Automatic annotation (TrEMBL):
UniProt organism field: Papaver nudicaule (Iceland poppy)
InterPro entries from the UniProt entry: DUF3339
Residue stretches spanning the membrane: 6-23, 44-68
Pfam families on file: DUF3339
Keyword Zinc-finger: no
Keywords carried by this UniProt record: Membrane, Transmembrane, Transmembrane helix
Protein name: Transmembrane protein
């Protein structure tokens, strides 16, 4: 039995936290932009830190597990 939680959590967070897709923090002209489909280096770093913080909390601290098979 394989634990699929890290894979699914990673894919979902990657999609939701892609800079410029839903929101971008910081934006080009504002502190936060929604649906701009543009990105910059600062927003990539911020979204990466947010991704790893949420991923770590869900997988290590809350012990989320999804077993298939």
């Amino acid at each position: 039995m394989a634990d699929w939680a890290p894979v699914l959590i990673g894919v979902i967070l990657f999609i939701l936290l892609s800079p410029g897709l839903l929101f971008q923090l910081p934006g080009h002209s504002r502190h936060m932009e929604f649906g701009s489909f543009k990105t910059n280096g600062k927003s990539i770093v911020i979204h990466t830190l947010i991704f790893f913080a949420i991923f770590t909390i869900l997988t290590l601290a809350l012990h989320v597990h999804i077993y298939a098979g």
